[in-house]
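User: I'm putting together notes for a lab meeting next week and I want to include a structural view of one of the chains we've been expressing. I don't have a solved structure, so I'd like a prediction I can at least talk through. The sequence is below, exactly as it appears in our construct file.
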Amino acid sequence: MPRLLLWEEYISEYPSGFQYSRFCELLQDQMKLNNAVMHFVHYPAKLLEVDFAGDVLHYVDASTGELIACSVYVAVLPFSGYGYVEALPDAKLPQVVKALNNTLANGDHFD
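Assistant: Thanks for the context. Below is the predicted structure for the 111-residue chain, given as structure tokens.
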């Protein structure tokens, strides 16, 4: 959206607001803040990041047609970007420990 059009909408709502040049300066400052980035340096085999992938997902049991809820565990090696994913019956500690053990046991198969 062109700045002039943004300013025209702004000034119609706030008639005593900033003039166009000041509006553009403030908009530029705001855009710099919103485009902030942070660079992370990762080293091979130093870090494994684990989390759950958003909302609980569901799959259909082929034999019964039942819709079954599952938490999706995700592990990533950030240096390489390799990941491991496993659907769990729930996100309780015994299941998470099992998934962590499976992650480490299958570490040489990360895709």
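A couple of points you could mention at the meeting. The CA atoms of residues 12 and 35 lie 28 Å apart. The mean pLDDT is 90.

User: Perfect, that's what I needed.
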